[in-house]
Amino acid sequence: MAKATATCTCAKCGATFTRTKICCNRRDADSWEEWAAANFDECDACYTARKASEREAAAALLGDAEKRKDEQVNLFDYRKTEIINELQTLDVMALTPMDAINKLFLLREKARKL
To answer: What angle do CA 24, 28, 31 make, to 5 degrees?
Structure first.
């Protein structure tokens, strides 16, 4: 059994830290030390900070999804929602009396088909 200890440098903050591993023999330990020095580039403090920010970002996305859940249209009520949206976006002041009557007739026909 051989203990491998690699001294690494954090790419983000520049701090030095060590990683250790128990290997089967000295050759494996030396090989692991070289690999660890080249591949471990984040100290524990930076790793913890990165994970915390990832959790916060995921929580924010989940919060946005919860807000949008209330806006989700029922599969069977999409035609009602379509008519309601059309009424809400209708500029009544810009319509002529004849256009208003025609629009009202079309909306009534859509409502009857429900």
So the answer is: 160
Residue-wise pLDDT for 65-78, tens only, equals: 556 655 665 666 66
Separation CA 110–CA 39 (nearest Å): 64
Going by C-alpha positions, the residue among 37, 32, 30 that lies closest to residue 9 is 37
Name the pTM for this structure.
0.49
Alpha-carbon 90 to chain mean position: 35
Q: Are 1 and 32 in contact (CB under 8 A)?
A: no
Q: Check: CB of residue 8 under 8 Å from CB of residue 37.
A: yes
Helices (H), the chain: 26-39, 44-69, 78-89, 97-112
- Give CA–CA dist 2/28, Å, rounded: 8
Q: State how far the Cα of 98 lies from the Cα of 54, in Å rounded to an integer.
A: 57
Q: Is the dihedral of CA 32, 38, 39, 43 positive or negative?
A: positive
